[in-house]
Amino acid sequence: MTKQGNVALITGASRGIGRAIAERLGRDGASVVVNYYPSDRAGADEVVQAIERSGGAAVAAAADVADASQMRGLFDVAEQRFGALDIVVSNAAATQHMHIVDTSDDDFDAMFATNARAGFVVLRESALRVRDGGRVVVVSAGLTLMPRPGTGVYGASKAAVDHLVRVLAHEVGSRGITVNSVLPGAVRTHALTSAVPPEAIAAEVALTPLGRVGEPEDIADIVAFLVSDEGRWVTGQCIGAGGGMF
Questions:
Q1: Residue 221 lies in domain
Q2: Residue 219 to residues 16, 57, 112, 130, 135: CA-CA distances in angstroms?
Q3: What percent of the chain is predicted at pLDDT more than 70?
């Protein structure tokens, strides 16, 4: 369980997996900075209220993860509001299903800015600002392990961050900081149900030994373990969380 008094920053925390992680860590005793894309303040406020109802402390903070200066500002919010930072979860990301031959240079640059560069900025700022003994977790994607048509650039942008995770674990390990990524498979979020036809979701379920789509809480529980004292001996890992799909 997260130590009482720990401060956590979660990017993309106003909905889906990020929301489940923020609410779980808040229940576990962390003070939480709930990052949201500027157009989703209502969702972030709901998360803050849920954490406060469970007895925790939280603050909503807007930032576009593709903007490095805004991302640095999130870390400033954590330090100014709560005094320090112990846990960072990089969850915000853009998804785009497009065949490589149909991907423009601008499409590629936008995907890597929102996923790869933003992930790099979060990891760099975490190394600079997280207290010794802290935890850093990236929510990556199972598609980095599955070469599915239409997912090449998206998967590559997430795989780049997985490599940074493995390297940073070595660079900050002497400070007792762990760095890991979690690779979800199909998870029941708005992003999934609004973009993927029911028959395609059913096909994913058919490939999953546990026979169901993941829930945001499934991923939140894994993150909660990684940031807890019990997860102290796990670092530099890219952990599959797809119900056995990969």
A1: 7-241
A2: 10, 22, 23, 22, 16
A3: 99
Checking if the pLDDT of 2 tops 70, the result is no
All residues at 6 or more sequence positions from 208 whose CB lies less than 8 Å from its CB, including other chains: 185, 186, 242, 243, 244, 245
Query: Which phi and psi angles does 88 have, rounded to 5°?
Result: -130, 130
For residue 61, give the CATH number of its domain: 3.40.50.720
Residue 17 lies in a domain: yes
Per DSSP, the residues of 205-239 read HHT-TT-S-B-HHHHHHHHHHHTSGGGTT--S-EE
pLDDT band at 96 (very low <50, low <70, confident <90, very high): confident
**Residue closest to 91 by CA, chosen among 145, 13, 14:** 13
Residue 14 Ramachandran class (φ > 0 left, ψ -120 to 50 alpha, else beta): alpha
36 included as an active-site residue: no
pLDDT at 51: 98
236 found inside a domain: yes
pLDDT at 166: 98
Cβ atoms within 10 Å of 17's Cβ, excluding its own: 29
Q: Would 2 be classed as within a structural domain?
A: no
Q: Give the model confidence (pLDDT) of 169-213 as tens digits.
A: 999 999 999 999 999 999 999 888 887 889 988 988 999 999 999
Whether 67 maps to a domain, the answer reads yes
Report whether 77 contacts 2 (CB < 8 A). no
Catalytic residue from among 154, 213, 220, 238: 154
Domain tally for the chain? 1
pLDDT value of residue 90: 98
